[in-house]
Fold this protein.
Amino acid sequence: MLYIFCPHCGLRSQNEFAYGGDGSVKRPTLNKEVSDKEWDNFVYNRKSPRGKHVELWHHISGCRQWIKVQRDTVTHEIFKTVSADKEI
Amino acid sequence: MQKYSVFSLFKNALKGHKDWEVAWKDPNPKEEYDVIIIGGGGHGLATAYYLAKEHNITNIAIVEKGWIGGGNVGRNTTILRSNYMHDENGLFYEKGMELWRNMSQELNFNVMFSPRGIINLAHSDAQMNAYARRGNSMKLNGIDAELLGREEIKKLVPILDFSENVRFPIFGGLMQPSGGTARHDAVAWGYARQADSMGVDIIQHCEVTGFDVVNGKIKGIQTSRGNIKAKKVGLCVAGSTSVLAEMLNMTLPLETHLLQACVSEPIKPILDHVVTFGAGHFYCSQSDKGEMVMGGDLDGYNSYAQRGNLPTLQHVLTEGIAMLPFLSKLKMLRTWGGIMDMSMDGSPIIDKTHIEGLYLNCGWCYGGFKATPVSGWTFAHTIAQDRVHDLNAGFNLNRFNTGHLIDEKGLGTKTWIS
């Protein structure tokens, strides 16, 4: 069982959260020419690191806020959590 | 190579079983090979076997970090099927079924192929319509499919919960009678033994640490047991693909996720088919030892852990008990996890890469076991001929750029919900 520290609610079990995928992916800037390669990288290509991974989680059965979590994908250790609009 | 038969068994029995040949050797890496396959799982072993058998390339090394058959080929739920709707998938996996049917004879190794039939249950009229459509698509591709009503399912699998007052009553289902199971370890061992006998070096406990690429062309690999030169290199490393891709400065449309499976204590024969729950994600079959073999959803977040978490197991088994209420009375014997190379459209990638002489075989999601022979067969063709076969032409890496996705489930890019 993962225990995730929600920056708004405190430490909660993973059952309250929904996963939102790689949190380091940036959408290409609006109103600018976007190349196919940039779209590919945004939509499909992922680094999927073995080790530290920044990811989004949705506290769907809690405060319903999106948060950013830095977690190790091998040990599942969670290093840091912040609200989704902040950088880790 | 010593042929396995009742006569060789008898002969060796008389000699006290002291003279059996080793099934495969344990060589040190040579300086150079024509082809190096990275990954000694089912797909890697099958690729080497078909390279030797179909394309007469025998100067091959299989380089494996752990031991052969220690990864997903020994961790899956052994299900074989080709019940896909899309042409690319249907034709590919049906070629696989053809190879499964002859595998024990071809490899001279009993893989305990058991075409017991796979049944996907439907729990609504809409789902029956969707299954009718899928079944018709399968038939158009020459794959056997039967749409079954509630009463027909009841005759085949009476142990299912046929109560009418349940949340997801059984309306019927889609059956592929030729689907089934095979013994997964035997598949790895059978391919290894034959590949070894044709001159393939199976090098275990040898971890790849880097690649030698010069002017866009592969020259060799770096390993924990020294550098090995090669004209061609094929990647067959499933859940570790992204790790090796990083060494090559490639970012792939993949994410590595964890899938769990479990078996109950053994019981007397009760389930003759492979059955899947249609209102969630749960599948079950009974092994020859009598254990109920079960699996379902991914753990749901990127993971290389090879061990799972309890909330997913609880969720999956809740569905299991809804389908087969007697499961609640069984003790759990074992649970385990493996890491899956989840692709962004749920379909595999078997293709050349932008690096000359480097070939990619990945994206199996959690359907890799049934693909073992056909994955090896098409990947061997792709490596030997330096071009894709018609059967894997759709599984190209470029489809994510051109938009020709093969999204069988229509789930999009959220790999963790598939």
In short: Chain B has three domains: 21-82+84-109+183-253+345-417, 118-177, 259-272+282-336. The mean pLDDT of chain B is 97. Chain B touches chain A through 25 residues (CB under 8 Å). The two ends of chain B are 43 Å apart (CA to CA).
